[in-house]
Amino acid sequence: MRVLLVNTSERIGGAAIATSRLMEALKNNGIKAKMLVRDKQTDQITVVTLDKSWINLWRFIWERIIIWKANRFKRNNLFAVDIANTGIDITSLPEFKQADVIHLNWINQGMLSLQKIKKIIDTGKPIVWTMHDMWCFTGICHYSDECMGYLNACGKCPFIYKNNSDNDLSHKIFLKKEKLLYSAHISFVTCSHWLEKKAKESKLLQRFPITCIPNTINTNLFRPTSKNEAREICNLPLDKKLLLFGSLKISDERKGFKYLVEACHLLHDNYSDMNNLGVVVFGKQTEEISSLLPFPIYSMDYISAERQLANIYNAVDLYVTPSLQDNLPNTIIEAMACGIPCVGFDVGGIPEMIDHLKNGYIAKYKSAADLAKGIYWTLSEGNYNELSKQACKKTINCYSESSVAMKYIELYNKVTKKNA
Asked: Are residues 280 and 413 in the same domain?
């Protein structure tokens, strides 16, 4: 069986990493899988890139211009939404023609337009679409926050500046998606049960089959190693308790970094035995936050090399993710695979990954105090060795390559038989 996985980027962003890992898992389990991207970052021969051209950049810019105009020429939420008004026709590519299954992933920011998705549907090829956020069933947003407009037909979108119109950009794009999906046969996949529930409630996807299959990880690469050796490799101190926070863009409010800052101040002020704590931060804009924390900070740039990532996880004692909205963060899977307990808020797919008081701690949503309590409990009161052991066990049982690949292969077989 030949499967073509389609994603905007090869390695930048959570969806890209998840898709790349799935491709490798499928290949390791007998599937001829290729990945089609607009932006390629490696020399991987099974990743096919579109021709580099100024028009690809222009597609991205043109979409932003339309959104910017609708947003009253404000930059607010400029990258929190997508309208898929422009994109690339992939149906004439040899990789597309050879594929038995077309597996769409995150295809925004000028990769595929709604019109080009319609061309894919019209070929009659079986389509699987993994949702890495909510965009497939909302008008324009990737995460709706507290808005429930997707239950009806969107409109009055809170992501559009000073907007109170029922017939706004979100409603117009929603109607276009509704028309696109009216007679389409697509098998949708969510990475978390949280997103599965949201999708099944939505007006756009309530008639479609939706399967929940988590992201995968290579547990031969991400595994526990010597902490002291990992710290020496990463040039981190040997005599401190270290917690880790990472994000592609640390200033992204959805990542909740301000709650970690507040939690660190609470730990510093209320727990004297936490004075030996250090905070490792990787991602863009790390230099801007060094003055915000009461503990020493060890900054690293955004890291995509997986061996280097595995060393960083093994070098720390705890991973903290104060995200305010998230589907199934790769970072939690990576940390747990290395035996690192995790602390995060009770939101999105995070409680499906962190088993409270078993392999980490689930804090009350937007409670910096409970986040601080979770950090303290994990490092000082819980059975750390057992937490670490259970984190590894959860990863092997739920996210291993063979486990996830077989679930997708079963789905591919199902959709190809249906189309036969």
From this structure: no
Q: How many CB atoms lie within 10 A of CB 289?
A: 20
Q: Whole domain around residue 173: which residue ranges?
A: 2-216+401-419
Q: How far is CA 356 from the centre of its chain?
A: 21
Q: Could you tell me if residue 221 is inside a domain?
A: no
Total structural domains in the chain?
2
Do 80 and 206 fall into the same domain? yes
Q: Give the C-alpha separation, 341 to 236, whole Å.
A: 19
Q: 171, 110 in Cβ contact below 8 A?
A: no
Classify residue 222: in a domain, yes or no: no
Domain membership of residue 173 (yes or no) is yes
Please give the pLDDT value at position 353: 97
Asked if 233 and 186 sit in the same domain, the reply is no
Does 349 fall in a domain? yes
* 319 and 199 within one domain: no
The answer on 409 and 378 residing in a single domain is no
Which residues of the chain fall short of a pLDDT of 50? none
The span from the first CA to the last CA of the chain, in angstroms, equals: 14
pLDDT of residue 288: 66
Do residues 204 and 182 make contact, with C-beta atoms less than 8 angstroms apart? no
262 plus 312 within the same structural domain: yes
315-355 pLDDT per residue, tens: 999 999 999 999 999 999 999 999 999 999 999 999 999 99
Report the alpha-carbon distance of residue 392 to residue 385 in Å, rounded: 11
Print burial letters for 355-384: b (CB count within 10 Å at least 16), e (below 16).
beeebbbbbeeebbebbbbbbbbbbeebee
The 10s digit of each residue's pLDDT in 288-311 is 677 889 999 998 877 778 999 999
Rounded to two decimals, the pTM is: 0.94
Contacting residues for 37 by C-beta, under 8 A, at least 6 apart? 6, 7, 8, 9, 10, 16, 47, 48, 49, 50
What CATH code is carried by the domain that includes residue 41? 3.40.50.2000
Helix axes 14-27, 330-337, angle to 10 degrees: 60
Statement to judge: residues 377 and 246 lie in one domain: yes
Predicted pLDDT at 92? 96
pLDDT at 284: 64
Q: For residues 316 and 223, what is the distance between their CA atoms, to the nearest angstrom?
A: 13
Query: What whole-number distance in Å separates Cα of residue 306 and Cα of residue 358?
Result: 26
What is the reported pLDDT for 292? 87
pLDDT at 248: 67
Q: How far is the C-alpha of 308 from the C-alpha of 207, rounded, in Å? A: 43
